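Support reply, case 0932

Customer input (verbatim):
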Amino acid sequence: MAEPAGPTPVDALRRIAFLLERALEPSYRVRAFRRAAATVERLAPDELARLAAGPGLRALPGIGEVTERVVREALAGEVPVYLRRLEATEGRPVAEGAALLRAALRGDCHCHSDWSDGGSPIEEMAETARGLGHAYVVLTDHSPRLTVANGLSPERLRRQLDDVTRLNETLASQASGGVAPFRVLTGIEVDILEDGSLDQEEELLSRLDVVVASVHSKLRMERTAMTRRMLRAIANPHTDILGHCTGRLITGGRGRRPESEFDPEVVFAACREFDVAVEVNSRPERQDPPKRLLRLAVEAGCRFAIDTDAHAPGQLDWQVLGCERAFACGVTPETVVNAWPAAELLAWTAGGC
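Our regenerated output:
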């Protein structure tokens, strides 16, 4: 009988622990894989195969959903997906990989102007994005209930849409040499309300190119309720991107704020099911989602949007910070929606409505 192509379950689990440790991941994650390796090593091969053939693995101490999947894939002679993603990034310096990922991006799907809590006019944000080599930028000012951020009422949003139309006409007139004009895509960062509904009129949401849905209030909601809240928003056909999913703040002038509590495996599975991209928020004070959750989203097969959440022109150059974390966690360009041309991005967002 031919030898299996992949590592043994024990070798795979230990290799994952080693790579996580080298990447400075939290020690509890490293211990989880080492504990699983020790459990599996104590089993005879026939017993391990018998347990893996049914639901028995999860009854073993130290075996959870992720480690069970690793064991099953290794027993099938495969290199486990989790290990493949870690191995794909460990041999290349993060700075190099991040630069290649940043070079693949065509635009930014989350930025703010002085219409809400940004500091500059739409025109200035657009000119800066074009100067950074983008083909488009999505304008995502806040929705009405976020009054502290001067969120846009339906009336103000309609006026903004008219302004963006005029600006795009000007940008189109400036294009030359057969090069496609730079575009400002219409959008919103819409609040996910406490019941999971979205904070804007449905008719307006249907008119927008891109909808980023984010939680900004009741961030300490109980875990089950927060999960339910997020799932309803993700299932909304207007939602394209789940913004800064934990809401955490880790540094900066606004102080620190802990992560919201929710079931990430359930939430990311819903993002995969409803084809909603998980945002990799590049703001230094957010770095959201944390790497442990970003890896889970990669494992779940999610799409991603690497965004700046810029509130000023200079912040549009923060994208490489998100690319560093994304690359380190196994995000590849083909899974990033803002690595697509504008037409492809718009075809994707239109498909959800």
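We compared this against your earlier run and they match. Two observations from our side: Residues 10 and 334 are 31 Å apart (CA to CA). The beta strands are 107-111, 136-139, 183-191, 210-214, 241-242, 277-281, 304-307. Please reopen the case if you see a mismatch on your end.
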